[in-house]
Amino acid sequence: MKRSLEVAISRLTERDFDEAVRLYTEGYRNLELYAYTHPDDVRAYLEWMAERDGEGLLKAVSGKGMVGFIGSDSHWFSKREGKQVGAIHELVVTPDLRRRGIGRELIREAVRRFLMRGLDTVELWVGDGNTVARKFYEKLGFKESGRYNYWIRMKADIQKLLQKLEQS
What we know:
Elements: E1 8-11, H1 17-27, H2 39-53, E2 57-62, E3 65-78, E4 83-93, H3 102-116, E5 121-127, H4 131-140, E6 143-148, E7 151-157, H5 158-167
Parallel strand pairs: 4-5
Antiparallel strand pairs: 1-2, 2-3, 3-4, 5-7, 6-7
């Protein structure tokens, strides 16, 4: 792993949307199959996440500006689990700063929020061809728990995930 980059995690607000749209587009370059490609669609997606759980829309900021964000949702009802779970709808880190601990810090903050809300499971969906993201989630302890078309559902126990995140 490259040297960690210290970041401050805070809420991503509508004032940040232009930068988040740019970061999202950059982050999904060559993975467009799994992403919104028009800036208006990306903005609508950010608005949807903010409406679902605005406190779960978080950004990572370093001296370089916004370097990543996460759309986490502590109000998600998982039909597959049959209960409310923490959901990670989106995780984006600027490509040239990946493997510096930014995604890990964003997930850690989201998982802390999930735990404070009494949730015990976190789930996400990742594109089957997004091997870098899949390996990242697996390294954290997420396990594949289903597929739909070219999407892979992954889930983790929040206590175990947080324990692993706190150790690093």
